[in-house]
Amino acid sequence: MSAHKVRLLVCDDNRDFCALLQEYFALQPDMEVVGVAHNGLDAVAAIQEQQPDVVLLDIIMPYMDGIGVLEQLARTKLSARPRILMLSAFGQEAIARRVMAMGADYYVVKPVDLEILAARVRQLAWGDALADSPRVPPASHAAGHTLDEVHALLRALGIPPHLKGYRYLGDAILLVLEQPELLGAVTKGLYPAVARSHGTTASRVERAIRHAVGMAWDRGLEPLRKLFRRGAEGRRTKPSNSEFIAAVVDRLRAGSAAG
């Protein structure tokens, strides 16, 4: 596929956003927008007619939403299935997991950095870097724990939910629950895996988690004090990211064993 331009289909009911994407991708020498659809019915028709390499598919569209498009494509015989990159203004984990299970290749929450979006399109079109990378496991299969459960514990420990580090920690903890070996490869394995799920870099994931852990440590809520035995005779220094993740994972596993 690298021998020709990436054929890109844009499906979104926001016409201004579509125009912005068309303008941006027109400046990319290795890409061309072969069509634009503003509703799900037109999206299905355009996929069949234009046979794009990659489809940018919004979830919320009139007549047929993005999920309906995925369902229709699953019933349609195509000569070549395009890679599907879902776009949504909503970041609910349940929706993301649902569309990934239905065949979407990647999920991006708006607003999105156009350079990052273009990088994801290239990865999807030219190789399997995203597909072969570790992904956050489905909530029901992360060693018996859900992302909601992990987030509840993080809030109890004092991690502010508005921070990016809160979301990154949730995904990192689920990954370690599913793949314990990642705790021994935090820099080269865990951070990159979380970064790919959020369209960012491993270094930003590391900094955001460190900031979130630092804020929780400064707040010093009782559950955190107990977890690290913080006090007059306990730990006085802030835990590292890996120490914090390991402690939370142990706490979750201990709760499961007790149950």
The poorly predicted ranges are 128-141
Q: Provide the succession of SSEs.
A: EHEHEHEHEHHHHHHHH
Structural class: alpha/beta
For the record, the CATH class of the largest domain is: Alpha Beta
Q: Roughly what percent helix?
A: 40-55%
Query: Strand order across the biggest sheet?
Result: 2-1-3-4-5
Within CATH, the superfamily of the largest domain carries the name: Response regulator
Mean pLDDT: 85
CATH architecture classification of the largest domain: 3-Layer(aba) Sandwich
Outline type:
elongated
Report how far apart the termini are.
51 Å
- Contiguous helical run count: 12
The biggest sheet amounts to: 5 strands, parallel
Query: C-alpha Rg, in Å?
Result: 21 Å
Can you walk me through this structure?
Ca(2+) binds at residues 12-13, 58. InterPro entries: CheY-like_superfamily, Sig_transdc_resp-reg_C-effctor, Sig_transdc_resp-reg_receiver, Spo0A_C, Spore_0_A, WalR-like, WH-like_DNA-bd_sf. Residues 7-125 form the Response regulatory domain. The chain folds into two domains: 6-126, Response regulator (Rossmann fold), CATH 3.40.50.2300; 147-257, Winged helix-like DNA-binding domain superfamily/Winged helix DNA-binding domain (Arc Repressor Mutant, subunit A), CATH 1.10.10. It has a five-stranded parallel beta sheet with strand order 2-1-3-4-5, with helices on both faces. The chain has 259 residues and is α/β, with parallel strands linked by helices. The termini are far apart. Residues 128-141 have low confidence and may be disordered. It contains twelve helices and five strands.
